[in-house]
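lol ok so funny story. i was supposed to be doing the assay writeup but got distracted and ended up predicting the structure for this chain instead. priorities right. anyway since i did it might as well share w the group, maybe its usefull for someone
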Amino acid sequence: MSNHPFNSKFRKSFYIQCHGDNREIDLEYDQPKLFKKVKKFYEEQGIQFYQESEADYELILSLLCEDLQVDVPA
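and the output, tada:
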């Protein structure tokens, strides 16, 4: 896996995040602590959120999808 900051921060949660991105689980409700950490990570990366729950969740899923594509081993 790459040295991408997302990977280094959330390596242990990779399995959970993969399922969250595939919408097999709802990260916000099934893994609230992880969801808060992921949101905080993206805020620290300079991502501007909408301050609207559904829109923020969709944005986080979109960002997760991008980062997981970068970090998924071939």
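The first helix runs from residue 5 to 10. The helical segments are 5-10, 14-21, 27-30, 32-44, 53-71.
back to the writeup now i swear
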